[in-house]
Design goal:
With 313 residues, this protein is of the alpha/beta class. 50% of the residues lie in helices and 12% in strands. The longest helix is centred in the first third of the chain and has 18 residues. It is globular and about 80 Å long. It binds iron/sulfur cluster and zinc ion.
């Protein structure tokens, strides 16, 4: 595989974009694309202060790196959850986040949940008996709360998270399986600010997970490879696997699934009231059945066509 721009050896081959790039051109392409998405979805401007939620994983560190390279005012927020899981998960992810911040001379805020609220996430979860033995519900709730609190208290305009396309497609898939309209109507690259809450944005929502891995590799960013030990066996990982199977057979399927959803949402096509949909119908002048097609209904038009063909032959 050769780089489309310079012909040297490709670092990544993105089948869904029919595009292969060398390391150097890939490192240009990723920020260019990110800038395009930031503008397209109206995420933020260079005058606004952005708080990036960093976990020490590849996506959030890449996001921080890209925003800084693009010249945005981006500071980091690390939330210490106190999760060990036999691999010192929180400890290691904090170490890598601090290392990245120090090496790039960036401002990093650290909130330690145990210091702040007296207990780590797993203990808080056990004490409150929420979430069937997994701390994820308490963890998600706490993270959202803390991100909002820090953004508001320290005067940030925007809160940016590193969710990639694989994350977004998996969430969308889950919400579609249950037709949870309340979530579907809120899912997207930008969640506008509401009283007391900063705007939330996902600048990486159109990048595949493997594209972010390739970016870290090309940039030499050291990140935590392990997932949180509590993520094992989660439905979202299962949905990601299913979508990857689909993607293997039909490159680009994941991206289309997400983009077509955003399009439908923007047009207001999701969950249009039945009455409203029916309001566009009129009765076909020939067969009298209701139709949304202008003039004759599709069936009558089809029949007309076959008759025309008949007379021609
Ligand atoms: Fe928190 Fe880990 Fe669950 Fe993610 S997988 S919500 S980090 S406990
Ligand atoms: Zn090249």
């Amino acid at each position: 595989m050769k780089c489309r721009k310079c012909g040297s050896k490709a670092h990544v081959n993105m089948r869904q974009h029919k595009l292969a790039l060398c390391r150097e051109h890939y490192l240009e392409w990723v920020p260019e694309q990110t800038e395009r998405f930031i503008k397209k979805y109206g995420m933020f401007t260079r005058d606004e202060k952005v708080l990036v939620a960093v976990s020490g994983g590849k996506d959030s560190l890449s996001l921080w790196d890209i925003l800084v390279r693009l010249g945005y005012q981006a500071d980091g927020l690390y939330i210490g959850l106190g999760i060990d899981g036999g691999i010192g998960y929180s400890h290691e992810s904090q170490r890598l986040t601090e290392k990245f911040a120090n090496e790039h001379d960036l401002k990093l805020h650290i909130v330690d949940i145990e210091k702040e609220y007296g207990q780590s996430i797993p203990v808080l979860s056990e004490m409150t008996h929420r979430g069937k033995g997994k701390p994820c519900s308490v963890c998600g709730l706490t993270k959202r709360h803390e991100m909002n609190r820090i953004a508001r208290d320290l005067g940030y305009d925007v809160l940016a998270t590193g969710h990639n396309l694989d994350d977004e497609a998996a969430v969308l898939f889950g919400n579609t399986l249950t037709w949870t309209s309340e979530y579907l109507l809120r899912q997207g690259p930008v969640l506008p600010s509401t009283e007391g809450l900063a705007r939330k944005v996902k600048p990486l929502c159109r990048f595949y997970e493997r594209e972010m891995t390739a970016y870290c590799l090309a940039r030499g960013i050291e990140y935590i490879y392990e997932e949180c030990p509590f993520a094992e066996g989660s439905t979202s990982i299962y949905y990601k696997e299913l979508l990857n199977q689909l993607e293997n057979v039909r490159p680009g399927a994941k991206l289309i699934f997400y983009l077509k959803f955003l399009e439908a949402r923007r047009r207001g096509d999701l969950f249009v009231e039945q009455n409203e949909a029916q309001a566009h119908l009129h009765s076909c002048p020939k067969c009298r059945q209701p139709t949304s097609a202008p003039g004759l209904c599709s069936f009558c038009r089809l029949m007309e066509k076959t008759q025309q063909l008949d007379t021609v032959s």
